[in-house]
Automatic annotation (TrEMBL):
UniProt entry keywords in alphabetical sequence: Signal
Record keyword Signal present: yes
Keyword Signal: yes
Signal peptide location: 1-16
Protein name: Secreted protein
Length: 222
């Protein structure tokens, strides 16, 4: 029971978390990466924004920054996010920010949320089958499970490779969430992440791949 509660909470953790403008100065490299994100949005606005038929048209870059890619959008909605022309550049810039340890501060929880937001672009377009997204599957299974205490049977077994991909994504979060997911992994005995063939945007972030490619990331079992 406790476990189900925690897992649901973890899914909520990234909700509404945005990097914002409040990042402190860490290094020139980090400043350049932040600037790259701003420039993407600005150039996108200049190129694409305008009034068409009385409506303001948003650029792909600004569109992406306004939504939470981890929210439930259904498979079709997730598809639309993942074909966004600005997705890869956004995902790759955020990945470099994690690699360069750009998220720092006094509040560990806040820093973890910033890292998770950045890493959400690694996970959001992970599919487990053609046009089938982990984000959608997890949200559906969690919702179907309701208050069931059979977390392994009702959720973890059902989400299959998405669990391990999710666990790796959550390794960018707090120590408490890492411990919780390791506990679930040990309890339910789950294995491999989904294939990188089903994720065009995942990359090596300090040896963490959320899909199965490259170095196998081993988190110590709690
Ligand atoms: C995404 O961007 C990175 C860095 O610019 C590049 O290496 C990679 O090939 C791109 N991937 C896709 C799918 O466009
Ligand atoms: C992944 O990136 C790290 C640096 O963050 C590097 O040390 C390591 O060699 C890379 N691994 C692979 C397989 O590319
Ligand atoms: C992870 O564990 C596997 C199996 O024990 C091992 O083969 C692999 O080298 C480990 N990877 C790392 C990065 O420690």
């Amino acid at each position: 029971m406790r476990c189900v509660f925690f897992f649901l909470r973890l899914l909520m953790l990234v909700h509404g978390q945005y990097i914002g403008n409040g990042l402190r100065y860490v290094s020139d490299t980090c400043e350049a990466l932040k600037e790259a994100l701003d420039i993407m949005a600005i150039n996108g606005d200049q190129l694409v924004n305008g009034i068409v038929g009385g409506q303001v048209v948003e650029s792909d870059c600004t569109k992406l920054r306004k939504i939470n890619v981890m929210d439930y959008h259904g498979d079709d909605g997730q598809d639309a996010i993942c074909v966004n022309s600005c997705y890869n550049a956004t995902a790759s810039t955020f990945a470099q920010m994690i690699n360069n340890d750009c998220f720092q501060g006094n509040d560990d929880y806040e820093v973890a949320n910033q890292r998770l937001y950045a890493a959400s672009f690694q996970f959001a377009c992970q599919r487990y089958a053609s046009s089938k997204y982990c984000v959608t599957l997890i949200a559906q299974k969690v919702s179907d499970a309701g208050t069931s205490s059979d977390i392994c049977g009702k959720i973890i077994d059902e989400i299959d490779c998405c669990f391990e991909s999710y666990r790796r994504y959550m390794s960018f979060g707090t120590q408490a969430s890492i411990a919780q997911l390791n506990y679930i992994q040990k309890k339910c005995g789950v294995g491999s992440p989904c294939s990188c063939g089903y994720n065009a945007f995942a990359t090596n972030i300090s040896n963490v791949y959320i899909c199965s490619s490259g170095i196998i990331y081993n988190i110590s079992i709690c």
